[in-house]
């Protein structure tokens, strides 16, 4: 649950603060961060199933893999989601806009 709900929400909160410092809508950028984090996790899960699973895919075998994944697969999926967060953070950092420091605009 931590890596599916709480971690993306924390990263969305961090990027919403960064967006507000740039003069952008923090809610929109937080929502984008949450969606991209989850999308990158899905991509990472697909890659991990294709890469870590070496048995012919049957329905029972795949359900066993999903219910008890190897630790390396879980970490790979988590780092893929982290890459999504860093992508949105990079986009926000490259934006020009007002920057507010301690209530004063620069």
TrEMBL record:
Keywords assigned: Membrane, Transmembrane, Transmembrane helix
Ranges that cross the membrane: 27-53, 73-92
Domain of life: Bacteria
The protein, known as: Uncharacterized protein
């Amino acid at each position: 649950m931590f890596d599916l709900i709480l971690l993306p929400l924390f990263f969305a909160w961090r990027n919403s603060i960064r967006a507000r410092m740039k003069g952008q809508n923090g809610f929109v950028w937080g929502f984008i961060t949450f969606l991209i984090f989850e999308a990158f996790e899905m991509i990472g899960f697909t890659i991990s199933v294709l890469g870590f699973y070496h048995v012919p895919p049957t329905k029972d075998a795949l359900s066993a893999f999903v219910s008890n994944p190897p630790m390396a697969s879980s970490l790979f999926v988590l780092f893929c989601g982290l890459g999504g967060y860093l992508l949105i953070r990079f986009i926000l950092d490259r934006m020009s806009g007002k920057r507010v420091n301690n209530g004063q605009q620069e």
